[in-house]
Write a structure and sequence with these properties.
By secondary structure, the protein is an alpha+beta fold. Helices cover 54% and strands 13% of the residues. It has two domains: 162 residues, 2-Layer Sandwich (Beta-Lactamase), CATH 3.30.450.80; 55 residues, Winged helix-like DNA-binding domain superfamily/Winged helix DNA-binding domain (Arc Repressor Mutant, subunit A, Orthogonal Bundle). The chain has a five-stranded antiparallel sheet with strand order 2-1-5-4-3. Helix 1 packs parallel to helix 6. InterPro entries: Sig_transdc_resp-reg_C-effctor, TF_LuxR_autoind-bd_dom, TF_LuxR_autoind-bd_dom_sf, Tscrpt_reg_LuxR_C, WH-like_DNA-bd_sf.
């Protein structure tokens, strides 16, 4: 992992309050030099919590106008496990265009990438990177940094659940490296690419994958990845 990510993840591991985790999210935003970074969690019982860099005014407007019911990003993420590029969504309807115009007027960028995360006991979360950039520049950014941000999304979610005491009873405990390995495979990386990204040998990667597979009671690697996603042990 890049040094900038290593530093923030190490800091996240020491967070024992949501306020400290929010400060780490702000630090991550600054290190990647993007406009905004958002983690928003909804528990099964409806309780919500967020660590974000949006203005309070925009958050208040979004909640007051119930924008989540028309937001193409939220609606799309509820239906899938894979990351959502905002530019690929349908913004042609009048409510969606109004929402987009309002968001930009309140300091959001025109580009966004959101990662849905499903956790234990019905927990659902979104990890979003938002920026002001042209299409070509944004494509270069996502190619260069999306692996980092996939891992960061998982770490933020895991730490938030730990702080809130919502880790889920009976869920198998995977080590950070086991989760990293499965996250890379879930994102479509080959074993060679995953090993290179995590700066470990393919042999070491194989050890982590096999260890995770046994803990999850999975028949093979594909089953292990699917199992980990379904249990919310990794985010994608």
């Amino acid at each position: 992992m890049a040094r900038k990510l290593d530093d923030v993840l190490e800091r996240m591991g020491d967070c024992d309050s949501l306020a400290q985790l929010e400060a780490a999210v702000v630090d991550l935003r600054d290190r990647y030099d993007v406009e905004h970074l958002v983690y928003h969690c909804v528990k099964a019982g409806g309780e919500q919590w967020a660590a974000l860099t949006y203005s309070k005014r925009w958050v208040d407007i979004y909640v007051e106008r119930d924008f989540q019911t028309i937001d193409p990003v939220v609606l799309s993420c509820f239906r899938r496990f894979t990351p959502v590029d905002w530019k690929r969504l349908n913004w042609s309807g009048r409510p969606a265009r109004m929402l987009l115009a309002e968001s930009i007027a309140h300091g959001l960028g025109n580009q966004g990438y959101s990662l849905p995360i499903r956790g234990p006991a019905g927990q659902f979360a979104l990890f979003t990177v938002n920026n002001k950039a042209g299409d070509d520049s944004w494509a270069r950014f996502t190619r260069a940094h999306m692996d980092d941000l996939l891992l960061a999304a998982h770490y933020v979610n895991e730490r938030a659940l730990a702080i809130e005491g919502a880790g889920g009873e009976g869920a198998p405990s995977l080590s950070p490296r086991e989760r990293d390995a499965l996250t890379m495979l879930a994102a479509g990386r080959s074993r060679a690419q995953a090993a290179e990204r995590l700066k470990i040998s393919e042999h070491t990667l194989r050890v982590y994958i096999e260890s995770a597979r046994h803990k999850l009671g999975a028949l093979n690697t594909t089953h292990a990845v699917a199992n980990a996603l379904a249990r919310g042990l990794i985010g994608l």
